Input
Amino acid sequence: MYTEKVMDHISNPRNSGEIENASGVGTVGNAKCGDIMRIYLDVDENQIIRDCKFKTFGCGAAIATSSIATEMVIGKTIHDAIKVTNKAVLDALDGLPEVKVHCSLLAEEAIHAALWDYAEKNGIVIEGLKKPQTDISEHEHE
Ligand code: FES
Output
């Protein structure tokens, strides 16, 4: 039921782990299944994402989407990174089974939450970025 790409990312997740002193961290959860995803961003002085890592306590689809999402944002500016939507992630994975599509939303939300955290810390505005609704660690890393 999973595509080859999804299986590959589940078996060999890219960029799993954490970044110490990350420029931005976003943690989101899915209330229904209880899965949690955290994204760490390392942003350089030109606002380019130098590194991105994830920690996901969740299903295979959530792991695959976080893995590919980290690959997709590395090298992008913080402004381009918000274009890594769940649709873009789904396309990059050649799709997910219908019942698993909600899992890919976590990746988009976690990236947005991490970008929001970065923007807040640096007093900047990222156009088009909205305050994350589901950042469950808002006060954890202050
Ligand atoms: Fe919870 Fe996939 S079932 S994120």
Q: What stands out?
A: The longest helix spans residues 101-122.
